[in-house]
Specification:
With about 60 residues, the protein is an alpha+beta fold. About 25% of the residues lie in helices and about 30% in strands. A hairpin with a 2-residue loop joins strand 2 and strand 3.
């Protein structure tokens, strides 16, 4: 993450968790958490250290 932040939808796709279309749907349906809370904004900016949850798995945003 060169710029220090990434959007939620991009993170899900880049990390190989979901495809772009799947990420859009999962976020809209409240299936994704950021730091333990549901976030419906696919464009939410994530920072290094944030924890994204999906399907009982947690993924930490790293540089």
């Amino acid at each position: 993450m060169g710029g220090g932040s990434i959007r939620l939808g991009q993170f899900l796709k880049f990390a190989g968790i979901l495809s772009g279309g799947e990420a859009k749907e999962a976020v809209a349906e409240g299936m994704v958490t950021v730091n333990g809370e549901v976030d419906l904004r696919r464009g939410r900016q994530l920072a290094v250290g944030d924890v994204v949850g999906f399907d009982r798995n947690l993924f930490r945003v790293c540089e």
